[in-house]
Design goal:
single chain, alpha/beta, 13 helices, about 15% strand, globular
Length: about 300
């Protein structure tokens, strides 16, 4: 039985709002904070307490979950003015589910340990659907004792796995992002080739289901490519941010990653063309530009 009952979730965007709903439904006392307070109002209606600052939301909580866009945002929310860390009691846990560089995660863990606070870096994969259904892949880095305390909470959100010491969860997420980005590119090229060669791309996708080429990317993103639905689940600009971190980690490790390097260039071009807020499946648009052809004849849906 976990000793954790009170949780603060900091960042109630596309992912954080859905995660909060699951924690509320599981019976936890949940406080929330978001830079835009309007995004917390639907959660307040479900029973969440709304804090005016990260510290106010975290006060009295056993566990704090930042779910933010990048390392500087997490650092500010934890250690900045009115940051959550100063409001936490000794023995509390911070489970950072944001995607940030591994060295930053390690630094945060050290700073929190100096305050008597446990830390787990636990980024996720699975997107809004996974957050809503509680099926996220959760990659955790930190001490076993801290993971064991957080695990019952994390199991309400998905499938947590401890992959190593502090920073390892973030490194695992970078591995995830390589596979996601390269596979989105591969699915884009496959569907374009199918149509250009005279086959029905929707039927080709159907035929590949269950074979070695099948994947969630083919199923979910492939389906959205066929309908040209690029409303953001995972924004392109955040995919690019993670890919830049991939290349930095590779440089630190002294290795070259050719596929990751090329797909980073493609996402950079897509963002430079003004598609940073679209779903990362919109990489199809960049590949269409290079290929000189288009998938289907429908109009693009770029915003909700």
């Amino acid at each position: 039985m976990t000793d954790i009952r009170a949780i603060a979730l900091l960042g109630t965007g596309i992912m954080g709002s859905r995660m909060t709903k699951r924690l509320l439904a599981a019976g936890y006392n949940v406080a929330v904070w978001n830079r835009s307070r309007a995004k917390t109002e639907p959660l307040a209606a479900l029973g969440a307490k709304v804090g005016d600052t990260p510290a106010a939301a975290a006060s009295g909580c056993d566990l704090v979950i930042p779910m933010l866009s990048d390392g500087p945002s997490v650092a500010d929310v934890l250690f900045g003015a009115a940051g959550a860390a100063v409001a936490l009691k000794q023995g509390a846990l911070v489970v950072d589910m944001s995607s940030i560089p591994p060295p930053v995660a390690r630094d945060h863990a050290e700073r929190l340990a100096a305050l008597g606070i446990g830390a787990i870096d636990a980024p996720v994969s699975g997107g809004p659907i996974g957050a809503e259904n509680g099926t996220l892949a959760i990659m955790a880095g930190g001490l076993l004792e801290h993971f064991a305390r957080a695990e019952p909470v994390l199991k309400q959100l998905g499938r947590p796995t401890l992959v190593g010491p502090a920073g390892s969860g973030q490194l695992s997420k970078l591995c995830n992002q390589i596979i996601v980005a390269v596979t989105i590119g591969a699915v884009s090229e496959a569907l374009l080739l199918a149509e250009a060669g005279g086959a029905d791309p929707a039927k080709v996708r159907e035929a590949l289901t269950g074979g070695f080429a099948d994947s969630k990317i083919l199923q979910q993103h492939g389906g959205r490519m066929l309908t040209r639905d690029f409303v953001a689940g995972g924004p392109t600009k955040l995919q690019l941010k993670d890919l830049r971190t991939v290349l930095a980690a590779a440089s630190d490790a002294g290795i070259t990653l050719p596929f990751a390097s090329k797909v980073t260039e493609l996402f950079q071009s897509l963002v430079d063309r003004g598609f940073g807020d679209t779903d990362h499946g919109a990489l199809l648009l960049e590949i269409e530009r290079i290929a000189g052809t288009r998938l289907g004849s429908g109009s693009d849906k770029l915003t909700a």
